[in-house]
Structure to design on (187 residues):
């Protein structure tokens, strides 16, 4: 987060670079909630990211070019869309992505409640993936907890991003178990 695209700031490529050597088996999925991802993707790639996702709202006509540049670096490329952005904005790029991230809250702050209507986008993108014979993963970020995780998976999400619900009360292990239990019957 850069404080421009969203009204908050988080860590940059230096953190990825410092964490990468700790465990080479970890998969580094970087979500750029920034105004100019084309100016920063290389720093994250150099730092050890393996998947770089950026917002279609931030790149406009440069979207396809940036997807191609990320893939030319040997990385996976993802596109994200905010809750108010229609799926039609990313439809032209479905052949070029490894992952689509549906934001189920307005990006920028943790602890928000999932906006139920955003799961319709997941359903729509799952139907498009099947009808076009594509293989991108569907990821959901925002308001994921033990009550909403199963809703997101039932809608078609392959990957869930959870922050506040994982770290709540400092009971990380218990919170992760609760999340896993909530989706276990759906898999």
């Amino acid at each position: 987060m850069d404080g421009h695209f969203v009204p908050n700031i988080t860590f940059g490529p230096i953190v990825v670079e410092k964490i990468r050597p700790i465990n080479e088996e970890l998969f580094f999925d970087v979500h750029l909630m920034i105004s100019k991802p084309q100016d920063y993707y290389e720093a994250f790639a150099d730092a050890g990211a393996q998947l770089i996702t950026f917002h279609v709202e931030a790149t406009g006509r440069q979207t396809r070019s940036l997807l191609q540049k990320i893939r030319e670096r040997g990385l996976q490329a993802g596109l994200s869309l905010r809750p108010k952005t229609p799926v039609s904005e990313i439809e032209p790029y479905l052949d070029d992505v490894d992952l689509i991230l549906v934001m189920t809250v307005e990006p920028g702050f943790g602890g928000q409640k999932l906006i139920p209507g955003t799961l319709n986008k997941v359903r729509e993108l799952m139907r498009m993936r099947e009808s076009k014979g594509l293989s991108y993963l569907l990821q959901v970020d925002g308001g994921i907890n033990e009550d909403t995780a199963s809703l997101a998976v039932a809608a078609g999400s392959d990957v869930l991003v959870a922050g506040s619900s994982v770290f709540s009360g400092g009971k990380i292990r218990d919170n992760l178990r609760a999340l896993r239990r909530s989706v276990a019957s759906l898999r």
In short: The two ends are 32 Å apart (CA to CA). The chain has one domain: 13-184.
